[in-house]
User: Fold these one by one.
Assistant:
Number 1:
Amino acid sequence: MLKVYKYTLIDLARNKFVGGWLLLLMAISFGLFQLEDQPVKAMLSLSQVLLALVPLVASVFSIVYIYDALEFTELLAVQPLHRAKIMGGQMLALGTALVLGAVVGAGVPLLIFHPAGASVTLLLACVMLTLVFTAIGALIAIKNREKARGVGLGLVVWFLFVLVYDAILLWIMYAFSEYPIEPWIVPLAALDPIDLGRIMVMLKVDLAAMMGYTGAIYEKFFGSMMGIFLALGALAAWVAVPSAFAFRAFRRKDF
Amino acid sequence: MARVIFENAGKRYGKMWALREFSAGFEPGEAVSVIGPNGSGKTTLIKCLLGLVHATTGTIQVNGQKVGNDPSYRHQLGYMPQISRFPSELKIGQLIDLMDDIRGNTMDRTEGPLVKELGVATMMDKRLGTLSGGQRQKVSAVLAFRYSPTVLVLDEPTAGLDPVSSQILLSAVRAIKRSGCTVMITSHLMEEVEAMADRIAYLQDGRLQFLQSPEEILGVTGLDRLSKAIPAMLTAKTGSHVESL
């Protein structure tokens, strides 16, 4: 697996898109910190941008890269290698490249202008969301033969998690406000990885109102450290489950 | 015992059978040309052998080892696909290094079959994304021959190659065949088939129509060229007129 990982990473390191992603994040981050007087406000604005952009880029780039590498993957699949090692190497390299892009692109300005626990938590959320959406992207790319369909599906999944799911949750809470539904809201919030990222940052910054309604409920149920660990655990599950399905699909795939 | 054995191998995609009940054995040192119209099941047959496609029915063996989840049998395989695409940012040398790592090969990257003959040795620092289709085919040919395969699978190997490189490649195929390697080759060029094949497997609608030597085919039809004899043979066999291959 390390052989595939190493050479895929070399390929990705020279990829213009990965470099562009790093520079874009750096420009946005520096820009926001220059515009805002208070670093904490800039950090919160940046968190909104990152929590939406990071999943989108991780998902779409993974899908496109896996489609474009299909013939090469086919060549690897006729070598004496287990398919799990091919998939593992490629996914790990994609995750590493995108995580480095996000951590360096947003991390350097964050640590310069707002070196606090909240910034580290935001970066941690970005890392986890990158891995989650790389796994989801890989699953989509393996399960769908057409690139356009795969990219479309990736966009739909992103839109669902970034906006629609939160809206549905809000509607449920409003519609059933007369019933004791709060214990159900917490596990329901964990079904959206982007919400989990928001919750992690929110618990650290202590500004629940800015982070959405589900985040506020989450904060009420859990203290700061407990909440962070639970959210991290749920995000780890969000990486593991799509990855497991992606590996299974890849093992059974007909090229 | 034959080196490659297909026993009732079949592949179904949904309701459509791309390959049905294919049974045959290919011997060491034998070149078998798999031909047939587009969509006849040639690529599916090759991909079943390579393990790229999971056969729905039957079994396939290479040197007595069953094609399945254990990839170790692929140490014996060399494969040159019809279309080669590689990671665009890698250099040719790095691609060869990767494959050498996977295969456990310690040979220098500029050594080995076809590396110098096809001019790949002088292009080691070239990015794969900058190569023309023909150059990619040359890299692909080098990789197919590099690890002394006992079974070599070539899918339209000369498509996209210049005439000189095509001749170099075909000479290498003849040489590796003489050394005892089993060669499976698909081609639409009848001259190539005539020059290379010990036996010809003709597929149509996923079914094997015949598997015979060029001499047998010419003898049965009484014609002097395979390009004429194969359609005549099919017409006699199926009763339907075949204009061309």
Note: The beta strands of chain B are 4-13, 16-26, 31-35, 57-62, 65-66, 77-80, 151-155, 182-186, 199-204, 207-212.
Number 2:
Amino acid sequence: MTPLKVSIVAAIAAVILLLVIFELIRSRRLQERYALLWLLTGLVILVLALWRGALGWLADLVGISYPPSALFVLASFFVLLLLLHYSTVISKLSEQNMILAQRLAQLEHRVTEDQPPAEVSSR
Amino acid sequence: MSELVSQTVEPRAQRAVGLRCLAIVPAYNEELSVGGVVREIAAVERDFEIVVIDDGSADGTALAAQAAGATVIKLPFNLGIGGAVQTGYQFARDRGFDLAVQVDGDGQHDPGEIGRLIEPLLDGRADLVVGTRFAEGGGYRGTPARRLGIRFFAAVVSMLMRQRVTDTTSGFRAANKDAIRLFATDYPHDYPEVEATVLLSRSGLKMVEVPVVMRIRESGSSSITTLRAGYYMIKVVLALFIGLFRRYSSPLEEP
């Protein structure tokens, strides 16, 4: 069985994490799209911290004799997942950044060319 | 005598005189249908300007739209329906349009219904009009799961807005100047329709629904596949819930 102290500390940490995520979304510093994985992380840690039987069962299942270790293993799994998620997000951003730079360069060239630009917006 | 007549049975086209109207057509890989949609709008609503927002299509969507006579804004990459539609509202705001109608580029919205859609705006009864598939007079057939999803959000939104709403996922909408200004500055990202409806009412603007008949889409498929449906539900419910704790300012106040 997980020592009670570990459960209490983990539960408090999870609740604080969830509150911080909530406030970040509310103040629009974090988009819902990127918050879902964070929320899942917080919820899973909270559930396992409170429902100590489940953590013991999970530890047994993967052969960890000390249940709190299972909690940390799981937490680091989610951290890895988040990092991987970020890698994909960064890849997409750098791709889009490149396209923006290329489009901007083309537009700048067109604007500064001697001849008038081909299309003039109708006003 | 003639004054009396013009007051009672003023035709819609006459009332709209002097108003600058814009049709916003978001299109993503819809080269087969977008040209027809543009031509149809131009045929029924002669005084409308039409802007097609090409949301990073890989096909000839932009060319087809241009050939049909629309103004085309090509996004450098796919932003998703929310980003595309907001680009249209920004265009409308920056060019001083009085009224903007969203019409999907896939042909599922009948341009012939635009007249009925903008009527509540002209009367000043609403700031946003949503063409709904469920209210009396509309006909909608879809998969049971789809209908259930639409009804679920309708129930949630009706509760949040304290107003009966039957179809929050419809993208056939008409906005007046206030709603244009609101959406140009603040519009949800993915799956935006449900959140936009709530955003509008929390900003103190008024929405009404008008029943419309929707057609079977000419090309493309719904952006909502079975796999994405789960993400859709969770994301929108989360956004609506957190939205309850946000403070909104009226769009009439300059930011």
Note: Chain B has a mean pLDDT of 85.
